[in-house]
Amino acid sequence: MSASFPVTRHVRAANNDFAMPAPDPALTRRAAADAVIFDDAGRILLQHRADFDMWGLPGGSIEAGETLNDAIVREVKEESGLDVEVVKLIGAYSEPEYTTTRYPDGNVVHYVSLTLECRVTGGSLRPQRGESKAVQFFDTHDLPEPLLRDHLPRIRDALARREAAFIR
Questions:
Q1: Model confidence over 84-122: pLDDT tens digits?
Q2: Long-range contacts: 23-28, Cβ < 8 Å, 24+?
Q3: Cβ-based neighbour number of residue 82 at 10 Å
Q4: Under CATH, which architecture does the 26-167 domain have?
Q5: What is the three-class DSSP state of 50?
Q6: Exposure class string for 124-163: b at 16+ Cβ within 10 A, else e
């Protein structure tokens, strides 16, 4: 039986038998987290990303050894200066059309993105060098342009204020 994707090397298990094929980065999905943060006026926090020169939700990859909660707390702090705690899961997103990203350096990354509503617990709102050109709360009916296209469904889902998480 042949594999459904090209396998170029295998990883040796501790008992010296061959184990699962080594992951191919071009075929592997990465876990990511995005934060939806509302202020007391119901406005949503967006960052003007330094890498894409576009607005979007704060967030990023979940690093090896990190929990989902740890990742979103770290990403929000790195990008906005705010300390947050997770309130609830808004949705899990895996549709390739909205989770495949081509970075300015040409790398293409396929994500499974988990979007979490978070509440501010401290810190001060300020853009972080290398991460964000700006961070600002926006009226949800007057979002800035250009806005990352793949973040629109996540923002719409957050605005639905549904108790159950979306799976898309």
A1: 999 999 999 999 888 887 777 877 888 899 999 999 999
A2: 26/108, 28/110
A3: 22
A4: Alpha-Beta Complex (3.90)
A5: coil
A6: eeebbeebbeebbbeeeeeeeeebbebbebbbebbeeeee
Burial class of 111 by CB neighbour count within 10 A (0 to 12, 13 to 18, 19+): buried
CA torsion, ordered 49, 54, 56, 58, to nearest 10 deg: 0
User: How many CA atoms, within 13 angstroms, populate the side-chain half-sphere of residue 136?
Assistant: 12
CB count, 10 Å around CB of 168? 15
Q: pTM value?
A: 0.81
Residue 119 tokens, joined:
């509440």
pLDDT tens for 30-89 read 899 999 999 999 999 999 998 889 999 999 999 989 999 999 999 999 999 999 999 999
CA distance 130 to 14: 41
